[in-house]
Design a protein that fits this description.
The chain is an alpha+beta fold. Helix content is 15%, strand content 42%. It has one helix and six strands, in the order ββββββα. A six-stranded antiparallel beta barrel has the order 1-2-3-6-5-4. The termini are close together.
């Protein structure tokens, strides 16, 4: 039996995210295609295998990903909250910033539906 998710914002699996890092001048740098480990209505955890981008806590990002239900594109700014570096990858946990009400609702519904299906 699986443990019950006790987080404030439960997380579920998703596929991919495009991540763009903001430069110190506030401009978006080249996008990187990453794997999403999980997503919640508040943020997501993704895995970067790029050797060109070094993420740090506090890094400002723009994330773009697609919710499978209806192929809805979510694009928003985010802040890196925690970073774990391994020999081959970086795991970056981000918190969404300025997520629109419609996107937040769609994320909440997607997470709830996914948890019900796992249930």
């Amino acid at each position: 039996m699986q443990g019950i998710e006790r987080r404030r914002y439960p997380r579920v699996s998703l596929n991919h995210v495009t991540v763009e890092v903001y430069s110190s001048l506030g401009e978006l740098e080249s996008p990187e295609f990453c794997f999403i480990i999980n997503v919640s209505e508040n943020g997501l955890l993704f895995k970067s295998e790029s050797k060109d981008t070094s993420f740090e806590s506090g890094t400002l990002l723009r994330v773009t990903f697609v919710l499978p239900d209806g192929n809805i594109v979510v694009r928003c700014d985010a802040t890196a909250i925690h970073v774990r570096v391994t020999d081959l990858s970086q795991y970056i946990g981000v918190q969404f910033k300025n997520l629109g009400l419609a996107e937040a609702k769609l994320l909440r519904e997607y997470v709830a539906k996914s948890l019900d299906e796992q249930g």
